[in-house]
Design goal:
By secondary structure, the protein is α/β, with parallel strands linked by helices. It has helices at residues 27-39, 59-73, 88-101, 118-131, 142-145, 151-157, 173-182, 195-200, 215-226, 230-239, 241-248, 254-264, 281-297, and strands at residues 11-14, 44-47, 78-82, 105-109, 136-140, 163-168, 186-189, 205-208. An 8-stranded parallel beta barrel has the order 1-2-3-4-5-6-7-8, surrounded by 5 helices. Strand 1 (11-14), helix 1 (27-39) and strand 2 form a beta-alpha-beta unit. The mean pLDDT is 96. It catalyses: L-aspartate 4-semialdehyde + pyruvate = (2S,4S)-4-hydroxy-2,3,4,5-tetrahydrodipicolinate + H2O + H(+).
Amino acid sequence: MTNASTPFGRALCAMVTPFTGTGALDLDGARRLAVRLVDGGCDGLVLSGTTGESPTTSDTEKAELIAAVRDAVGGRATVVAGVGTFDTRHTVELARAAEKAGADGVLVVSPYYSRPPQDALEAHFRDVADASGLPVMLYDIPGRTGTRIEPETLIRLAEHPRIVAVKDCSYDFLAAQKVLARTSLAYYAGCDEHNLALYAVGGAGYVSTVANVIPGQLRAVLDLFDAGDTGAAATLQQQATELIELLMSAGLPGTVTAKGLLNTLGLPAGPVRAPLRPADRDTVDGLRASYERLLASTAPGRPRA
């Protein structure tokens, strides 16, 4: 399932954090959703990331979520815990807690709001990597954090023995290829429209929000490419484009749209936490219609979800 080039697997889902109707952490729902995702083709689950609403869950809830999902999936999938904050000390504490709760690795986003320069950013990541025995996936998403992890910084950080991967939401495909060519970092697409493209130039796979609803189809794209059927892989990726766009580029955060669609499908999700607000009925209806069109267009014998 994993090796040096795919340290956390290939097909990872940035899992939503299910809440009850009253907004409490829904651990039973998290277990059921995790099992569904792994049964559907995910070989890794990323918890408490952007899609997992990490800014609005407590440290205790994050640890409870890791333990519940670890218990549910056992060794069938890797469990990567989002621990990144704008505070190095707090991030270190969360990394240690994630290790204790049973995570296989940690996802560490650039500190947001304070916008540290590159030397401070590099020191932050090294401090977190030194704090536990877990391998680290760096999370480069400057559109949310305000700070880019520059390619030269990534190249230096790749020398650290526990910094092994990047979740790339930089939208800089040239920079990703530059780092791939000069390091052994495993690059995971963090934007679903890049899943196949990054994989084709040596990426490790993806960390996908859209996989919450179509884990099988996204996994099949990679499987077809590995089997040499690149045309079919491209077709399957293209078939998912409409749903990817509606989920990820419709002016709402992906966790809002993903939860809206999961709820209408009767799957564990629940509400989002404030300051986020639920998707309106028209948005949810549009997502459901796109999902149904995707199922109808999927070629016979191909995964349908």
